[in-house]
Amino acid sequence: QGLYSSVVCPGLVMSNMTYRILPVFLWKLLMPIMWLVSGSTAVFVKAPLERFASSVWLFKQKPEYLDSLVKYHSCTSGLGKCYVEPRKMDVDEDTAEEFYQKLLELEEQ
């Protein structure tokens, strides 16, 4: 029917919603460590708007050329450059196909 589905991951984003998870004093202790770690891990997205990189990138692609078994991650390099990294999902293709067929059956009902 021309419908496509893809999985995206915005990465870890520090926002005002994140601060409600732990007490403020604990964040003050953790933030220097988080910023040091952010230079060595690509999934820590520093700016909240960068979290949409994978969604925007995906929107610009031709869906028929995308791999349905890949998750597209918003990432940031150590120098702050935003990019999208595709990672293969740990999915059993036979089970996925069986699930899809059952969804088609449900749709017919």
Write a structural description:
By secondary structure, the protein is α/β, with parallel strands linked by helices. It has one domain. It is 35% helix and 19% strand. Strand 4 and strand 5 form a beta hairpin. The longest helix is centred in the C-terminal third of the chain and has 16 residues.
Widest sheet: strand ordering: 1-4-5
Total helical segments: 3
What is the overall silhouette?
elongated
What is the domain total for the residues? 1
Percent strand: 15-25%
Termini, distance in Å?
17 Å
- Please provide the ordered H/E string of secondary-structure elements: EEHEHEEH
Name the average pLDDT. Answer: 77
What's the alpha carbon Rg, rounded to whole Å?
A: 18 Å
The biggest beta sheet reads:
3 strands, mixed
Number of strands: 5
Structural class by helix and strand composition: alpha/beta
Low-confidence segments, given as residue ranges, are: none
Share of residues in helices: 25-40%
